[in-house]
Amino acid sequence: xxxxxxxxxxxxxxALGGLLGGAGGGAGGGTAPAAEGGAGAGSEAGSGxxxxxxxxxxxxxxxxxxxxxxxxxxxxxxxxxxxxxDAVVKSARxxxxxxxxxxxxxxxxxxxxxEQVAAFHRAIGVPEAATGYEIKGPEGVALNEPLLARLAxxxxxxxxxxxxxxxxxxxxxxxQLDEAAAERTRQDQLAEGKLKEWGGKKDEQxxxxxxxxxxxxxxxxxxxxxxxxLGADRALELMAKIGAGxxxxxLVGGGRGTFGVSAAEAKTxxxxxxxxxxxxxKVASKGTPERARWERLNRAWAEGx
Length: 305
Fold this sequence. Notes:
59% of the residues lie in helices and 0% in strands. It is mostly helical. Among the domains are: 100 residues, no CATH class; 104 residues, no CATH class. Helix 7 packs across helix 10, helix 8 packs across helix 10 and helix 8 packs antiparallel against helix 11.
């Protein structure tokens, strides 16, 4: 411990002091001055017992090592070279002052008084109340305030310093944002793959997707949720099938039907049929389903003009 090193600088005519070298000299034989900057015990050590003999008052100090300690209190006094009680008190006061000057505070033990715990919390930077923690997300990002308030309450009760809590929660928020960004990228890749799979029929299929979503009354936010639940590729495929079914139902019924087809969607489907050589060949033949669809799409497009 740093405080014990300060005491050692003042003691030291015994064997341990010799091993400490420059940190010793002064207390042993009384012939050398105390080390400058030590705990001040060297100048006090000349009185009392003969050189090499322990002072009588050592007998009142335990010679048994306590739990978790490798030496007894008496051995510790001897190692420090204290010759009278004034030297011990002076060393303790120096150590206490050093702790205070360095801003150090004792860690409360189990069962410590609330005042001790509160003083420790203030020293390490725990705010006075849970509302003292400040969490700010990136601009434009809405945070879960109820969750953050609950976490702040738990952190305050546990004595978590302000800086530690804010840094930890900030990192967690950023991790969530990074995870969400990675998921968006993955879903975009799935959607791009489906569009490539549709190839030349992409515009027609996208028109079906729009029709399907409109038929079900889905918003853009619903679309985001749907692709998150099913995957963008499966969501597009599903909406395209629903939209195509709506279009067929409307056309076969001979009118705009329950859901209807917009002029823009009709034109998109007409263009797709025209650009598909196989479909175009069937459209050219009277009596084919493709010809019937073509005619009804043309009527839907004309009605929307």
